[in-house]
């Protein structure tokens, strides 16, 4: 079985590869790709794989954009950290998915389902549109639970200046305090208003209101000055710089 992994989180890609190695299936890993742009180029240059594991949120956009740029006739198993509201669209449209963090048993079940199927599942345009609408529909959220002492308190989303991940812990920073948020960066960003918050790289999300200055930085990136930066540097990744500037202009 020739497998392609499209995933922008190195840790998630490594975990998936380890789970595949532990499975009872013989496979050949063709490549690991982390952007929409590189995925499109890969499909244009290579023979179609037998199966693709595809994350939804990539470094330069939603993976669904791949299908808008090129025809992909390979069966897809999406890997996602999106909440139940979005996953419902996958169930309705019979598109396979694995919820992160992926479990060995669930992977084995998905692979068995794939090997027993005689049909090549191609994502039809109408299904793609429904999935895109579901994923992109903002899930309004006004508050968030954060750790305080031995318990939790709720703070307003509007108080957060930025969020970041460090040593597998997610932090949220306000003007006065730093909180621990009991969610992954993927889960957190997926529930935020994307007109007010931008994920500038894998480990940082910044509120538009907190950005004070934007300066050119090495390798076509930009560096941000934000309110209450503490010990953090805010560098927009190269792949996201163009989209970030467009977002700031809105």
From TrEMBL:
PROSITE patterns in alphabetical order: HTH_LYTTR, RESPONSE_REGULATORY
SMART domains: LytTR (SM00850), REC (SM00448)
PTM annotation (4-aspartylphosphate): residues: 55
Domain Response regulatory residue range list: 2-115
Molecular function per GO: DNA binding; phosphorelay response regulator activity
Residue span(s) of domain HTH LytTR-type: 144-250
Keywords: Phosphoprotein
Record-linked Pfam families: LytTR, Response_reg
Protein name per Swiss-Prot or TrEMBL: Response regulator transcription factor
Organism: Aquimarina mytili
């Amino acid at each position: 079985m020739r497998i392609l992994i499209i995933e922008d989180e190195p840790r998630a890609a490594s975990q998936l590869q380890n789970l595949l190695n532990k499975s009872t299936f013989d496979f050949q890993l063709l490549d690991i790709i982390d952007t929409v742009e590189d995925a499109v180029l890969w499909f244009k240059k290579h023979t179609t794989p037998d199966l693709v594991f595809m994350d939804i949120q990539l470094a330069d956009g939603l993976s669904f954009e791949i299908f808008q740029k090129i025809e992909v006739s390979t069966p897809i198993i999406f890997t996602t950290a999106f909440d139940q509201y979005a996953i419902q669209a996958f169930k309705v449209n019979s598109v396979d998915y694995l919820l992160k963090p992926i479990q060995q048993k669930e992977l084995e079940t998905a692979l068995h389902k794939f090997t027993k199927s005689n049909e090549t599942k191609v994502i039809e345009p109408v299904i793609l549109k429904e999935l895109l609408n579901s994923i992109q529909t903002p899930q309004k959220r006004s508050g968030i639970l954060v750790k305080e002492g031995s318990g939790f308190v709720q703070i307003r989303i509007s108080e957060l200046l930025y969020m970041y991940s460090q040593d597998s812990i997610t932090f949220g920073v306000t003007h006065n305090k730093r909180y621990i948020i009991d969610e992954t960066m993927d889960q957190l960003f997926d529930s935020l208003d994307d007109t007010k918050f931008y994920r500038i790289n894998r480990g940082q999300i910044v509120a538009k209101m907190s950005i004070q200055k934007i300066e050119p930085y090495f390798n076509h990136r930009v560096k941000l000055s934000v309110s209450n930066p503490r010990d953090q540097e805010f560098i927009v990744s190269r792949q996201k710089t163009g989209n970030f500037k467009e977002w700031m202009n809105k």
